[in-house]
Amino acid sequence: MSQFFDLVKYYYYGSAQATTTEKAGTTTDAGNAAIKVVYTSAIAEWKNPGSGVVGYLQKGTTQTVVGKIQVNGAWWYKLSSGNWVPGEYVYVTGASRIPTIDNNVVNQNTKVKIKYISGYSIAVWSNPAIGTTGQYLKDGTEVQTIGYTTANGKKWYKLANNTWIPAEYTEVVSSSTVVTNITNESNTVAINYPHYSIAVWSEPGRNSTGKYLSDGTKVQTVGYTTVNGKKWYKLADNTWIPAEYTKVVSSSTVVTNITNESNTVAINYPHYSIAVWGEPGKNSTGKYLSDGTKVQTVGYTTVNGKKWYKLADNTWIPAEYTKAVSSTDTTSGNNTVTVNYPGYSIVVWSEPGRNSTGKYISDGTSVKYYATANYNGQTWYKIGENQWVPGQYVKVNASNNSGSVTVKYISGYGIAIWSNPGRNSTGKYLENGTTVKYFETQNYNGQTWYKIGENQWVPAQYVSVN
């Protein structure tokens, strides 16, 4: 009956009203489990704590909270939408009823039986420990679960419709862990089982789906694995077929030998456009880049002796139709650099890397800069009209190490987010025009980088400071 009293307490206390002062970073046990944005401006809404900005919540916005987790000593709150907000920018109500959750759901297929009081049912929840759905499962009912997590120290099972039940009121009937050793490879195969059909399985060799594929049918596979010495193909809907009853029609392996390196290149194909490819030399996306267009690349690889550049959206262009370029990005005039060339002065140039002005700036001098440019892989800082200094001899001052930046790139494209300045693309990107907060700046190889989240950096050359 403890679950019944849990529900009574939830609804009773949930009707209380907050009485404490609404300040960012504070909580109260009164009221429903929710957050209210009380920061001085809009705050970012994140896909995961500290990574993947998906939108913004305006000041005064309230949202239902379904859980919380502590990351690097800071609390993050999970909204009913599945997105996250940092606790330091919000006022939290119903704090004592917000479950602390393990953000890592273990993917495991487990059939369980409800084990409660005979004749009674348990509630089905929309999230672990908070938010009942109004649905119930009777004692003795068998259900298939697809994963589990921990909330407030208790185990919860996830059902196929993304609802949850407490493990303490169940017993395991059967269990099988989701296949993880999968090689991602795109193939087209044809069923090769003359006069017959083959079964489609939910796991390699286990749990037939009741579906069949007839001899000669062509299907797209997205990966493969080996179980008990036999190869199985994974289909796009996460079902499986045995490779022994198929033959390969076409194949394309996911590119893995990629060198992560940030560059700006310009399309160099006079009077024409070049195709953008899903893979190096295969699967045209239907997009094109016209001659002279500047794009950011996040890495490169070599296929059949030819170099290919990887773009931020995981598409590819051939290096043979590009050339390296410099690019300028206007910033505010509130940023400064200090000459770092002990015992000497540095030259001021009229253009990045070209045409000395005959002027010099001595070591230790701090000056404002108004724009940056990338020339031959090095960042240059514009300190006045037709006056530039090289990044390798200056350091960016930290007096303006927080604020916001807006992506200034190509319409319809995005820039890569890096786990370290200039190294290791995260595979995520920000679309052109997106505005995000930054919390730190760093100079790497003469170029300024902005930190927009934990292990998330973007280069100054593709953003403007607001």
Keywords, separated by commas or semicolons:
single chain; mainly beta; SH3 type barrels; 5 domains; five-stranded antiparallel β-sheet; 1 helix; 62% strand; SlpA_C_lactobacillus
Polypeptide structure, described:
The protein folds into 5 domains: 96 residues, SH3 type barrels; 72 residues, Roll (SH3 type barrels); 71 residues, Roll (SH3 type barrels); 66 residues, SH3 type barrels (Roll), CATH 2.30.30.40; 138 residues, no CATH class. It has 466 residues and is mainly β. The strands form 13 sheets. It has a 5-stranded antiparallel sheet with strand order 6-5-4-1-7, with no helix packed on it. Strands 13-12-11-8-14 form a 5-stranded antiparallel sheet, with no helix packed on it. Strands 20-19-18-15-21 form a 5-stranded antiparallel sheet, with no helix packed on it. A hairpin with a 2-residue loop joins strand 23 and strand 24. 3% of the residues lie in helices and 62% in strands. About 4% of the residues have low confidence. It has 1 helix and 43 strands.
Quick overview of this protein structure:
Residues 135-167, 206-243, 281-319, 355-397, 422-460 form the S-layer protein C-terminal domain. By secondary structure, the protein is mostly beta strands.
What is the CA-atom radius of gyration, in angstroms?
28 Å
In spatial order, strands of the major sheet run 6-5-4-1-7
What are the low-pLDDT stretches, counting only 5+ consecutive residues below 50? 12-20, 326-333
Summing up helix and strand content along with how strands pair, one would put the structural category as mainly beta
Mean pLDDT: 80
How would you describe the shape?
flat
Oligomer: single chain
How many strands, which pairing sense, and closed or not: the largest β-sheet?
A: 5 strands, antiparallel
Our estimate of the beta-strand percent is over 45%
- For the record, give the distance between the C-alpha atoms at the N and C termini, rounded to a whole number: 57 Å
**Tally of discrete structural domains:** 5
Q: How many DSSP H or I helices?
A: 1
Could you estimate the helical fraction of the residues in percent? under 10%
Number-wise, the strands total 43
Organism: Lactobacillus jensenii
Pfam families: SlpA
Protein name: S-layer protein C-terminal domain-containing protein
